[in-house]
Amino acid sequence: MKSGAIELGETKTSTPKNGMNKGVAILDFILRLVALVGTLASGIAMGTTNETLPFFTQFIRFRAEYNDLPTFTFFVIANATVSAYLVLSLPLSIFHIIRSASERSRIILIFFDTAMLSLLTAGASAAAAIVYVAHKGNTKANWFAICQQFNSFCERTSGSLIGSFVGVVLFILLILLSGLALSRR
Amino acid sequence: MKSGAIELGETKTSTPKNGMNKGVAILDFILRLVALVGTLASGIAMGTTNETLPFFTQFIRFRAEYNDLPTFTFFVIANATVSAYLVLSLPLSIFHIIRSASERSRIILIFFDTAMLSLLTAGASAAAAIVYVAHKGNTKANWFAICQQFNSFCERTSGSLIGSFVGVVLFILLILLSGLALSRR
């Protein structure tokens, strides 16, 4: 706290603002943990999805895996990347709890948070678009709803989107918090 | 400049920082204009896409419009919303050029910029996922590549994604700039 005040070249005592900044930093840490759980769960749920239908012909076994659809592979990669980033950002978040006046690290965090928000949103919404087609099909394009056959496959992939979208909302909050912390130094 | 210094309760002269903040605010304004052009062009290009094939049977005319695929409708809505937001945010951006010390309006901008970034990314990547299926099809799910018939329709929809993705990159830069401006008050 003191070293931060010296660094900024200010002499006024800023205890309440610093206290609030500490609160913001702790909230930041908690939100990161929750987002990590969400994206990790999403990635694992999607990555382990497969369904083999109980009937088969002599030559074909009807089997659906997540990587039959390239978009779902992208979804898993996006979630894994964001999870790894969140783990890496946790030490920086702890550093912000201890030294709430640091400035450059916050800007770096804002930048990477924003990039990761984009990646996560891209993965989640691309997968959602495919899940929508899988559920409803599209008569104009002659795409059939595969969910009528692969029922549990569809339920699993749809469900695994939730964690990602929770992560998106949390990232928006994280960026807002970083902005608040930057403005209240 | 002076009123800002008084507002903050500081007595030091901060001309170089304020000058840089003015530069950041002007850059912010320009980036917003470019992003507006990109999203508007994307929305209009997708919204006016349709193709009627030169052959038809007695009962069916083969015609593809953007709203045959719900995801493309979402794409147009997302781009229209983001364009409208960008127009509304321009006055605030001009306000930041004049008064570069304002703080609350910047945080409000960061929040809405982040939300709009999410919306735009969601629209663009969902549309990209559908365009991918339209181009490549998916043999496992029995979805056919419709681009073999609707050639110009596919080219138009693919091309209209570009403006949106440019917009996404610009939004990331905008949020970074806002963070920089907040830290350098």
TrEMBL record, chains A, B:
Keyword annotations of the record: Cell membrane, Membrane, Transmembrane, Transmembrane helix
InterPro entries per the UniProt record, alphabetical: CASP/CASPL, CASP_dom, CASPL
Pfam family, one: CASP_dom
Residue ranges crossing the lipid bilayer per the database entry: 29-49, 69-95, 107-134, 161-182
A GO term from the CC aspect: plasma membrane
Membrane topology: Multi-pass membrane protein
Sequence ranges assigned to domain Casparian strip membrane protein in this UniProt record: 22-170
Localization terms from the record: Cell membrane
Highest taxon, organism lineage: Eukaryota
Record's subunit section: Homodimer and heterodimers.
Family affiliation: Belongs to the Casparian strip membrane proteins (CASP) family.
Protein name: CASP-like protein
Lineage: Eukaryota, Viridiplantae, Streptophyta, Embryophyta, Tracheophyta
